[in-house]
Structure formats: C-alpha cells, structure tokens
Specification:
With 103 residues, this protein is mostly helical. The protein has four helices and no strands.
Length: 103
C-alpha cells in the first residue's frame, strides 16, 4: 500500500507533467510573432480566448502589447517552464530533496 507521501508525489508528478505542454502550447504563445505559430495552436488560442473571454491571451495583429503582461509570460517561459522539467526529474528519480523544491 503506497504511503500518503508517495500518493502526493504521484499527484505532483501528474501536475507538473501536464503543465509542460500547456505552458508551451498556450501560455507563452502571445510572446511569439504570429507568423511562426502553427495554425492548430492559433486555432486553439482563438477557441480558448473566445470560450474563456480572456482579453490578454488574444493573439492577433490588433492587440495591445502590455509590457507587464508580457513580462509575466517571459517569467513563465524562463523560470516556471524549466522548473517544471526540474520538478518532474526530481519526483521521477525520487530525490530526497524533492519536497524542498515543491514548497
């Protein structure tokens, strides 16, 4: 029978693994020029922004580029995304230091 800590590690592992593609395919797209974004991801962006009504995530030529929002997206790309890979590795290998980083 797995312990509570092992079950929580599995939940955390699932969380971090699932957020890697979401961060790449959804969260950092407004940072990129529309010319290099594949059409399926642009369609996904249109669907999500229409469904959720999030004006900040809209990708088109007429949107206003808010510096503060773009800086948050850059933090997701350069801090959060690498941490997701690191957390997955720490949890997958069962490192004894894994819980310190998950705080």
């Amino acid at each position: 029978m797995p312990t509570l800590r092992q079950r929580l590690d599995t939940v955390f592992l699932g969380y971090f693994i699932s957020h890697i593609p979401i961060t790449i395919a959804v969260d950092v797209l407004p940072l990129l020029p529309t010319e290099i974004i594949p059409q399926p991801l642009l369609s996904l962006n249109r669907f999500l922004t229409t469904t959720i009504g999030d004006p900040f995530m809209v990708i088109d030529r007429t949107r206003t580029d808010l510096v503060w929002f773009r800086s948050l997206l850059a933090c997701e790309l350069f801090v959060q995304l690498p941490f997701f890979f690191y957390a997955v590795w720490m949890l997958w290998t069962g490192s004894s230091r894994r819980h310190l980083w998950l705080l």
